[in-house]
Amino acid sequence: MLQKLFGKRSKSKKPNAKSEKSKTVPKAKKPMITSTRIGELGEYKINIQLDQLPKNSRYLSDVLLPNSRAKSGYSQIDHVIFTSYAIFVIETKNYAGTIYGDRNRDKWSVNGKFPMMNPFHQNFGNIKALKSILSEEEESNFVSIVSFTRRCTFKVDEDLRKIQSNDLIVYDTELSEYISRKMNVLRVQANSPRYTDEDVSSMYRILSKNNITDPKFRSEHIDSLKQKKYREASAAQSEAKAKCFTCNIEVSRKVKAYCEDNHIRFKGKVFCFEHQRS
């Protein structure tokens, strides 16, 4: 009898098998890819394609040049490619979504919601900065290319996808293809190459010499861009917080813009839909 009692007690002290199984080790989470890392991967894919260009082509990446017209005082160019028939200036973007844009519009958008500067206007500033260094080159010798990742879908001017244009929008995976096709078009149009191998090497040396590599100046440029983004974000936030003059309820930017466009009717004040009728 005593053995049975002690036996039961000893059995009750045994750990519950089910509870032991439930104590599973949590699975390690996959590391998140930061936006900086995504940008680095995008640039890496671009550099692989640029290495496939003809041997007599030369290119430089991440070029920083002085530009008095830019707010930061500099132009930062993602890639410059010197070939026998043209100088290609590449601006890379790492957005995801549908890109809406027109060549002549100041603002483009991502998914119709998030505004972005017309990248060709931005690249035009880069070309101007290059022309200040390569003073003898005509603007027609430059081809402006804006490259997006495959995470995007284009809803832009059809002309920006036609190889005859000097303003081209491409996916990063087709960059070398578009450059080769453009060079073939220029080869047919011209009787001879626009630049000799020595010309290409000379332009490359001039740009390399003028490229600002000092970390101090590059840091100043980055800080200036960050301040600009902060100011733009603050301005957009203040616009979104416009309030009705009567009830003090926040209204959207569209409502605010409507009231401002009808300044005579609303006397320069902003009203919500309800109080616009009163």
How do the strands and helices of this protein lay out in sequence?
Blueprint lengths: L1 H11 L4 H6 L12 H16 L7 E9 L7 E9 L4 E7 L3 E5 L5 E4 L3 E4 L1 H15 L8 E7 L3 E5 L10 E5 L3 H15 L7 H14 L4 H26 L12 H9 L1 H4 L6 H4 L2
Parallel strand pairs: 3-7, 4-8, 7-9
Antiparallel strand pairs: 1-2, 2-3, 4-5, 5-6
Features:
43% helix, 278 residues, 4-stranded mixed sheet, 10 helices, alpha/beta
- Mean pLDDT score: 82
Strand order of the largest sheet: 1-2-3-7-9
What is the number of beta strands? 9
Low-pLDDT segments: 17-22, 27-38
Helix content: 40-55%
Number of helices: 10
How far the N terminus sits from the C terminus, by CA atoms, comes to 94 Å
Largest sheet: 5 strands, mixed
Structural class: alpha/beta
Round the Cα radius of gyration to an integer and report it: 29 Å
Strand content: 15-25%
Helices and strands, in N-to-C order?
HHHEEEEEEHEEEHHHHHH
Query: What's the shape?
Result: elongated
